[in-house]
């Protein structure tokens, strides 16, 4: 039985989301059912349908909340780190910590039936990654990323982090090597014009 916060009157929707998130985290999406969630929080099996008519509605809501949590982590990482290079490193650490500790949730966020194509899920995903995009936009404005598209840079950065997280989650890469991978990832995103020049010279050899 999943451990969730007790249900209190007026907080049914959040109680359902908390219980569903616990099931996803501990056992995966395939084990999630509205009936089990209702039993976990001690309400009738029909009660959650007041807010989530079907299982997919609940999955969408869990994904939306997951992106909200991720976005908060990324904003906190940026706000706590002065300077572009420290922000890139901090964001990489925050993302990988989230994606490896919440592997089932992240899989749901990116790959459930509607995915990021669902309106609510898509909007929450865009909001979650906006701090990362703003970081690269500032880098371009400050001359750290000259002649680079911030959106494309952000997408490559995200793809790199998600790939690393996937390798950790499936056991190919030991979690103890995350620091090394973070350092290697940060090195791919210049911390100044001189770094970009160095990369170009290396590429021309």
How many domain regions? Answer: 2
* Amino-to-carboxy terminus distance: 59 Å
Shape label:
elongated
| N-to-C order of helices and strands | HHHHHHHHH
Q: Hey, roughly how much beta strand do the residues contain?
A: under 5%
| Number of distinct helices | 9
What is the overall pLDDT average? Answer: 84
CATH topology of the largest domain: Tetracycline Repressor, domain 2
Looking at the overall shape, the CATH architecture of the largest domain is: Orthogonal Bundle
The radius of gyration is 20 Å
DSSP E strands, number: 0
Largest β-sheet summary: none
Which residues sit in consecutive blocks of at least 5 with pLDDT less than 50? 1-5, 192-205
What percent of residues adopt helix (DSSP H or I)? Answer: 55-70%
Per CATH, the class of the largest domain reads Mainly Alpha
User: What structural class do helix, strand and pairing data support?
Assistant: mainly alpha
The H-level CATH homologous superfamily of the largest domain, spelled out, is: Tetracycline Repressor, domain 2
Organism: Microbacterium allomyrinae
Keywords: DNA-binding, Transcription, Transcription regulation
Protein name: TetR/AcrR family transcriptional regulator
GO molecular function: DNA-binding transcription factor activity; transcription cis-regulatory region binding
């Amino acid at each position: 039985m999943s451990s969730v916060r007790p249900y209190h009157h007026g907080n049914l929707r959040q109680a359902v989301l908390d219980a569903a998130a616990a099931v996803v985290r501990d056992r995966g999406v395939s084990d999630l059912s509205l009936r089990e969630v209702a039993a976990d929080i001690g309400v009738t099996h029909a009660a959650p349908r007041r807010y989530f008519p079907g299982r997919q509605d609940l999955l969408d809501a869990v994904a939306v909340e997951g992106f909200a949590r991720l976005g908060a982590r990324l904003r906190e990482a940026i706000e706590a780190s002065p300077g572009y290079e420290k922000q890139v490193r901090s964001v990489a650490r925050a993302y990988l910590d989230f994606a490896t500790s919440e592997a089932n949730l992240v899989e749901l966020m990116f790959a459930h039936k509607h995915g990021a194509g669902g309106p609510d899920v898509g909007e929450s995903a865009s909001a979650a990654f906006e701090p990362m995009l703003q970081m690269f936009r500032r880098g371009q404005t400050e001359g750290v990323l000259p002649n680079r598209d911030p959106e494309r840079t952000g997408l490559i950065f995200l793809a790199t982090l998600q790939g690393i997280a996937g390798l950790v989650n499936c056991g190919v890469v030991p979690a103890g090597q995350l620091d090394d991978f973070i350092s290697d990832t940060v090195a791919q995103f210049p911390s100044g014009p001189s770094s970009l020049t160095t990369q170009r010279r290396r590429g021309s050899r």
